[in-house]
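Thread: "does anyone have the structure for this chain?"

Original post by V.I.:
We have the sequence but no experimental structure in hand. Need at least a predicted one for the grant figures.
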Amino acid sequence: MSVAMESSCPVPGGGEWARHWRYAGLPGLELLRARYVGHAFPRHTHDGYVLGAVTAGVEAVGLPGGTEYAGPGSVVMINPEVPHTARAGRPDGWAYATLYPSAGLVAEVAAETGAAGRGGGTVGFRREMVRDPEAGRLITEVHRAAEQDDPLTADTLLRVALARLLRDHGGVLPDRAPRGAGARDAERARLLLEERMTAPPTLQRLAAELDTSPFALLRAFRRRYGMPPHAWLTDRRVRRARALLAAGSRPAEAAAAAGFSDQAHLTRHFTRIVGVPPAAYRRAHAVPRR
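Reply from O.Q.:
Generated one for you, tokens below.
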């Protein structure tokens, strides 16, 4: 029998709640159902895809091309590594059911359904928001089946939803990586920050190591990754903490290993970016230690 690992917790703010979890019957997938009013997600990215079905209210999603306002019947689709924000689009907030399929799972469905084409490349979604009540219904039904511990139905509906969205809005994504010396400096800066996540250099020192100026590096980094180096580093630290928490680390251990000054520092940034506190995330995702 599959085991559903989940945690439903209140989020600071009137009437807010969130359940972020993983269902053992659907490997390669995380799930979030929530209602947010005052909570606002800062600019961040995911290493997999985001498929969010808004069920009430309005969500304002900040994307590189502008802000999309998604109401009931809308589906938000965000490709890996695309920087974005999210907040309430009206005073009463929004509610949604979200799936976070891994890149591997989406590639598998794309290959099986022909959405990947014949030329290879990364498959993704060409639009960030569409009005598709049927796809939204399928996403919410995946949640319902998982909550009822029905892996056959959950897996079937997940693949049907992915196939539908890839058929109607998917395809091989163009290579949009910037070229030139600035892009190379941004890439080298990213690698250095990853290596020194727990003790990063100042912007001035980082620029000096790359033989450029601080403002030139700042502009190049923003252009390449959609956010300044310090925001990118916080996002990556939260990603590392997520992996550590899912592996069973305690929040204080994950905070130190990811470069946060203490557990409170981790909790503040983790809750803003992920939508639930690290302790709740660990309860829902961690494989019990033996």
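V.I.: this helps a lot. The first helix runs from residue 103 to 113.
O.Q.: and Residues 143 and 149 are 10 Å apart (CA to CA).
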